[in-house]
Amino acid sequence: MSSDVRSESSLNVALLHDGMVDKTGRTVTTSVTLIDVHDISRSCRTYGVDNLYVAHPSQTMRALVRTVKQHWDSGFGATYNPNRQDALGVLSIVTDLDEAIAQIERRTGKSPKIIATSARDGEDRVSYQSMRETIEVSRDSFLLTFGTGWGMGPELMSRADFVLKPIVGPTPYNHLSVRAACAIILDRLRGK
Q1: Rounded to whole angstroms, how far apart are CA atoms 93 and 54?
Q2: Which of 12, 16, 52, 163 supports an S-S bond with 44, CB 3.0-4.6 Å?
C-alpha cells in the first residue's frame, strides 16, 4: 500500500444528476444548480467530509461547475471570501458515480460502501443512528449519494450497500431541497 493511501474510515458525498427520475417516473438527467454546489460544499466542509463529488455527464455542466470552483480557488472570490474558498476545497467534478468511486479507490485503496438517500420509504432502510455507528467503527470508506430532480432511479438505488430512512417531519409534506436534506443527514451522521 502506498504512503498516500489512507487506512482510516472516510466519508464522501456525491451529488448525482444522471439516472434521476422526474415527477412522471421517467429516467432523466437534471441540470446542475449552482446554489446546491455552494451550499452542499459548505455542509461537507462543516461536517468533515473528505470529498464532495458533483457528477454530471455533460461536459458543459462540468465546465460550469469548474468555472465556479476556479473563481473561488484562484479568481477574485479567493480573496473576497476565503471561507468559500475553503468550503469549495472539498469539491471534485466527475462524470458519473463510477468516476467518483474510482477516485476514492485510488485515494484510499478500497472501494467505498455506497449509502443512498431517498425521500421514499421502503424495506431495509437503515436508521441514522445505525449508519452513524457503522461509519464510526469501520475502517471502510463510504460514499453518501444524493439525487436531484425527484430522486435517484432504480438502477442507482440498486447499487447501494445501505439506504437511509427518509427524513420525516411532523407533516405529510416531504420534498426538501437536496441541499437541505444533505445538511440534515450530515448532522445526523456526523454532528455533535
Answers
A1: 5
A2: 52
Rounded to a whole number of angstroms, the distance between the first and last alpha carbons of the chain is: 33
0.90 exceeded by pTM: yes
Helices (H), 47-170: 59-73, 76-80, 82-88, 97-108, 128-137, 154-157
| Closest C-alpha to 55, from 113, 117, 20, 100 | 100
Beta-carbon contacts of residue 85 (< 8 Å; ≥ 6 apart): 72, 73, 77, 78
**Closest C-alpha among 104, 109, 114, 102 to residue 142:** 114
Q: What does each of the 192 residues of the chain score in pLDDT, given as a tens digit?
A: 334 444 456 999 999 999 999 999 999 999 999 999 999 999 999 999 999 999 999 999 999 999 999 887 777 766 776 767 788 899 999 999 999 999 999 999 999 999 999 999 988 999 999 999 999 999 999 999 999 999 999 999 999 999 999 999 999 998 999 999 999 999 999 999
Architecture of the 10-59+89-190 domain: 3-Layer(aba) Sandwich (3.40)
Where do the domains of the chain lie? 10-59+89-190
